[in-house]
Amino acid sequence: MAISHFFFINIIFTALSFLLQSNLSSANLVLPKSQGEALIRQLNLFPTDAEPVLDDRSVVSDKKIVEKRFRFPNIDEGVSVEDLGHHAGYYNLPHSHDARLFYFFFESRNSTDDPVVIWLTGGPGCSSELALFYENGPFKIADNLSLVLNEYGWDKVSNLIYVDQPTGTGFSYSSDRRDLRHDENGVSNDLYDFLQAFFTEHPQFAKNDFFITGESYAGHYIPAFAARIHQGNKAKEGLHVNLKGFAIGNGLTDPAIQYQAYTDYALDMGIIQESDRNRINRLLPACELAIKLCGTDGKITCAASFLICNMVFTSILNRAGNINHYDIRKKCIGQLCYDFSNLNKFLNQKPVRHALGVGDIEFVSCSPAVYQGLIMDWMRNLEVGIPALLEDGVKLLVYAGEYDLICNWLGNFRWVNAMEWSGQQNFTASPNIPFNVDGAEAGLLKSYGPLSFLKVHNAGHMVPMDQPKAALEMLTRWTRGELSDVNANANVGILKMVTDF
């Protein structure tokens, strides 16, 4: 313990020395909650803490799942709610003081026999409605707040679930702040309990193939949730979940490797100079050590690793200038890198709230309280549980848009390549092949056995938003076991082989 404290003091000294010697005037230590609010405001979401309004008790019930079929306003009145197959509901979390998770369920436009796919948005603390309306859901929000059908919605090939989680995100709520989650055990147990209740409510879907998907901080949620399902299946807990695979999009999974990649990616993409990289890299030994201590030495070192390692990222931003760190091709105009404000406007309409059955519960786009609650979880390595899943044949797809800085493809590729499992050498030696959509190269794919990595061209942090057609094609082929099919990905003529990403 004394050695750990000695190293911890050295970590703090190294970080403070860097700040004092640096001319990066805005690369300052920031309190976690303040940093969370700053990042979220750059998405124009104007967050508030999750404080539930409990005037409408219609959502409260002794039943674990309270669900209704619904139809959004402005949808063709000639279509019945039964025909649409759209559901919204609350799940009363059993291992909580007073927590309820809100979710959407959209039956496949094609067939109820299609796979069941759950989507988890990251943040941490950002609502699944972000993906629903701006990425891969059945609808998108028009400028006049009407809904238009998403031609590339993932409900075209799957039965699609979106969950507002952890508690305090989106329409999910609790009257007891002790229900905020602080680690992946709490998050994954809540999701597992929800899934058991969901399949109990919808037994006709329990036999379908099941896949977990998501992006960003869901790089933590997804492996933990997959491992929890796998554990439950092996122990014969409750209903068997037909888990076939999990997909992580531009995620944060192995921070020790991914934070090391920041300066290399930034230099490769021309947003910093080599002198900047050399200077910023002086933080990396302290960052790496802090991450190691976080994994073994409790809470204070996890907070230290969050603050120190994120100075690597903020230092790059200060050198790079006015860029959108979710898509470096774009400028961040003012403090608003994207404008998602129509989401709040749409969901705050009384007819919409009535259709969903949420009463007066406040919608929280991104919760600083949830963000802060998971600070101690941020730098933990979630790669450690993945090899056991691969060995048992559960598929993993890691995909990343090539222009994202914050969870860049290079860091993701490095942790996937470094992961130790029985197929590691074969995966490393496997060729990179073009991932083609409509005869054009949409990305580069590397696969072996149950493991695949896809670098997506012309996309930033949110691949389904930037490349919706390619993202839908990716999901379709992956869930059907055809992602690395040479015939599907080949150019007309000879298959193009690439030696390196």
Automatic annotation (TrEMBL):
GO term, biological process aspect, one? proteolysis
Sorted alphabetically, the keyword list is:
Carboxypeptidase, Disulfide bond, Glycoprotein, Hydrolase, Protease, Signal
Its GO CC terms? vacuole
Report the EC number(s), separated by commas if there are several: 3.4.16.-
Leader peptide range in chain numbering: 1-27
A molecular function (GO) held by this record is:
serine-type carboxypeptidase activity
Q: Name one Pfam family in it.
A: Peptidase_S10
Recorded family membership? Belongs to the peptidase S10 family.
Protein name (record): Carboxypeptidase
This protein's species is Stephania japonica
